[in-house]
UniProtKB/TrEMBL annotation:
Membrane topology value: Single-pass membrane protein
Entries under PANTHER family matching the protein: GLYCOSYL TRANSFERASE-RELATED (PTHR12154), UDP-N-ACETYLGLUCOSAMINE TRANSFERASE SUBUNIT ALG14 HOMOLOG (PTHR12154:SF4)
GO terms for MF: N-acetylglucosaminyldiphosphodolichol N-acetylglucosaminyltransferase activity
Any Pfam family: Alg14
Signal peptide: none
Native species: Crenichthys baileyi (White River springfish)
Alphabetic keyword roster: Endoplasmic reticulum, Membrane, Transmembrane, Transmembrane helix
GO BP terms: dolichol-linked oligosaccharide biosynthetic process
Classification via InterPro entries: Oligosacch_biosynth_Alg14
Family: Belongs to the ALG14 family.
GO cellular component, one term: UDP-N-acetylglucosamine transferase complex
Protein name: UDP-N-acetylglucosamine transferase subunit ALG14
Top-level taxon in the UniProt lineage: Eukaryota
Claim: Glycosyltransferase is one of the keywords in the record: no
Length: 145
């Protein structure tokens, strides 16, 4: 019975994802980013060197890419420090309360068993999806691949 519930939840999640993807693709615009105003950016920062890489990419974005919403793991203090340092180094007009940092549970800790990572991944997903729907970003960037 538990397996059936899990499969149903997974199917429902996939269906909602595909529906959202369809709506986003069909509501797109042929205009370049920033042509209609600001572009809300959602950045998923990973621990280690990934945050440094994403900060290098973020340096090349113009002031049109605001607000910037960063998502980090709830145990990742180093990425938060790097993001705050990066944002405070920007000119005040570019960075004045134009960014947020949200924390979500890690989907998998180092050395965590694969069987228990299914539950932790679903938990992280249950935090991530409402966050994306609340922030409604125009662009999502993730270097955790």
């Amino acid at each position: 019975m538990l397996l059936l519930g899990f499969v149903f939840a997974l199917f429902l999640t996939a269906l909602l994802f595909l529906l959202r993807l369809y709506l986003v693709v069909n509501s797109g615009s042929n205009q370049p980013p920033g042509a209609r105003g600001h572009v809300a950016v959602l950045v998923v920062a990973g621990s280690g060197g990934h945050t440094t890489e994403i900060m290098r990419l973020m340096e090349s974005l113009s002031a049109a890419y605001t607000p910037r919403h960063y998502v980090i793991a709830d145990t990742d203090r180093m990425s938060e420090e790097k993001i705050v340092t990066f944002e405070s180094s920007k000119p005040q007009s570019h960075s004045d309360l134009q960014f947020t940092i949200s924390r979500i549970p890690r989907s998998r800790e180092v050395h965590q068993s694969w069987s228990s990572s299914v539950v932790s991944t679903l938990t992280a997903l249950s935090y991530s999806l409402p966050l994306v729907f609340r922030l409604r970003p125009d662009m999502v960037r993730d270097l955790n691949t």
